[in-house]
Amino acid sequence: MGPLTSEVASPLICLRNFQPLNGSINRCVGPKAAQRKQERPSRRQTIYLRSASSSNGSGPRSAPSTAEQHRNHTYDVVTLGNLCVDIFIHVDQMPAVQELKTPGYLRQLQQQSTDQSLWEVGASCNFLIAAARLGMRTAAVANLGEDVYGKYLLDILQSEGIAHFEPLAPAAFNEQLRETLLCFVLMGPAAAHAFCSRYDFGPWPLLPGVDRLPANVHKVLRDSAALFVAGCCFDELPPAVIMEGVHSHRATGGAVFFDPGPRSMTFRDPHRRKALHTLLDSTDVVLMTQEEAEAITEISDAEEAAWSILDRPGAATQWCIVKLGGEGALLCTKSPRRQHRQTGVQVAVADTVGCGDSFAAAITMGYTRRHSIPALLTLANAVGAATAMGEGAGRRVATLEAVQGLLQREAEGASAQPVECISDSGRGSLPVEPLAREALALLEQSLGRRSTASSAIATGSRELSGTLSGDGHTSPYRKDAHDRSATQHL
């Protein structure tokens, strides 16, 4: 059989071109050597990765119906679930599909020792890292296993300035919760690649037994200005648990952002479709690619699909955004009823993995702080384009320097394409140059907010202590993870 193509790849993780990571390499450790199973559940702790201020929250909500509920929050945004580690393995020949997509083949991959230079964080880590680099104070609620992969992922989040990690479950009461979710990326001849992970064949939910959220999770959700939910959460958690988190977050005026992602096709299942509609009723901002929009709405036209989301009776959705790749983005608003279309920033594209996550991070910042939509789209397009200039995602998403460079180029007149705005009262356009200058100012403002918040509580940071496992083996939640100085990409 010939090399596998993207048509047979797992829909969870987008295709990427692999380039070995730079940096020191620790010893090769296989999951069997790194995981010592326990008969009893292990205790889990809240992890404070960086200091975060409760005295400097984000600005007013964009949705006027809940603006009066908004207050200062400790975190600008928190993600729910969907953290994993991608492991890249080079093979001389791709296995047949019927062999690749099986639990047995996954077990074989897990038993192989892998070099950390072949690892990268994935899924919602892309969003978290991009948001942190834009100056947002970020937190994650998810499951990390008591293995070397959980430690690796947690260390990366800490080095990238993510402020807080909260376990989804207070105790690892089954084997699945003791294992960090992995996606094996097989790299074959002629750039062929394919994927193998638990997302391919379940059983779903991938985190069984999590039938309610702990009190500490509710505390974090209520103390964040925004909640980002990816479609892959429905693979990990029951819909009732997802909605428990959404309702808890909205109780204090938080805004909910939903990106169905590459698992959009699964929402055609009747049970998942019902859960999707329930989530959409409580979502402030929906972000989709054109293909995802068609899968969700069964409408191929981007504008019609966006309006169908906004016009759902009783839905809280204020913005619907359709990401158009190199063509930019379409943003439709419910009140006032307008649509904004802006072309993408022209760059030499190396890889599109993580572009949508980076774009979503900028949109989240702008919506919660009520920034000008045209300037916000200019910023979001620049962040997505800066990610496309590099290969891979995770720590390879947009850097501040790359975003600033693109915006400066636009401010100097590199783009002749105006920003289009259509409303009930007519059609208009805006030149890009002043919008790029405004986007640069928004970015500097965001970085200034974070600096103020960090310095305000520099002496009041909380330490990590203890372990999750209680049996003395290395835990991803060890205290010394907090003591390392954060790598600054800003």
TrEMBL record:
Entries under InterPro entries matching the protein: PfkB_dom (IPR011611), Ribokinase-like (IPR029056)
UniProt feature, compositional bias: Polar residues: 452-468
Bias (Low complexity) ranges: 50-65
Carbohydrate kinase PfkB domain span: 265-394
Spans annotated as Disordered: 30-70, 452-490
Basic and acidic residues bias (residue ranges): 477-490
Top-level lineage group: Eukaryota
Protein name listed in UniProt: Carbohydrate kinase PfkB domain-containing protein
